[in-house]
Amino acid sequence: MTVDTALELSPPARLAIAYAPRELRSAFALLLQVDQRFAEILRNAREPMIAQIKMAWWREAFSSAAEARPKGEPLLQALNQVGDQIPLSAFEALASAWEHLLGSEPFSQEAMDTHAELRAEAIFITYAVWIGSVQDVGPIGRSWALEALRIAFPERVAHFHMPSAPLLKARALRPLSILTMSVQNVSGPRLILHALTGI
Predict the structure, then answer these.
(1) DSSP class of residue 8?
(2) Which of these, 76, 78, 117, lies nearest to 98 by C-alpha position?
(3) By C-alpha distance, which of 140, 145, 137 is closest to 96?
(4) How many domains does the structure of the chain reveal?
(5) Rounded to whole angstroms, how far apart are CA atoms 11 and 193?
(6) Quick check: pTM over 0.70?
(7) Per residue in 118-147, pLDDT tens?
(8) Which run of H or E residues covers position 52?
(9) Which of 9, 169, 22, 157 shows the shortest CA–CA distance to 74?
(10) Is 35 a member of any domain?
(11) Which domain holds residue 152?
C-alpha cells in the first residue's frame, strides 16, 4: 500500500491501520479503501443498473488471477501486492453489503441490517481471523457499519434501530475499537487517548 493511497482514507481510519500489526496494515487498509470506493459508487449512482454493472466489474476483477486484472486501477495494484492475504469471500461480502442498498430510497431497516451484517463480516470478522481472535466482533462490527452509514448518507437514513455492542478492550482488536469510536461523535483527542490506552 503506497503512502498516497493510504492518505485517501480518513484520519481515524489511518489511525486504526497504524495500530494493526505491521504485516496486516496493507491488507487492512485495502479493505477499508474498497469499502470507501463501494460507498462512492452508491453515492454517485443515478441509475441502480449502472451501479450494478460497476459492482459486477469489481467482483470479476477481485476473482481474477493477478495477471488478468485490469491495469491502471490503484486498488487492484494494491491487491496484487498483498497477494491472497484477503480472502475473496471478504470482497464478495463487501460488494453484497453495498449492493443491498441499491434502489432503496430511503434505506429500509431490512436493507440496512443486511448491509451491516455483510460489512461487519467483510472487515471486522476478517480482521479478527487474521489475528486469531476468538472474540465475537460481529455485534460491534454491525453497530459500526450502521452508524457509519448514517454519517455517510444522512439524507437516506431517516431512523434505524442501533443495537448495543460492548467496546472491544483487547489490545489486538484496537484497530476495530478505533473504527467503532470514530463514528460515535467523540473528539479527536478522545479517540487518540483510546488508541493509546484502550479506555
Answers:
(1) T
(2) 117
(3) 145
(4) 1
(5) 14
(6) yes
(7) 999 999 999 999 999 999 999 999 999 999
(8) helix 48-63
(9) 9
(10) yes
(11) 10-197
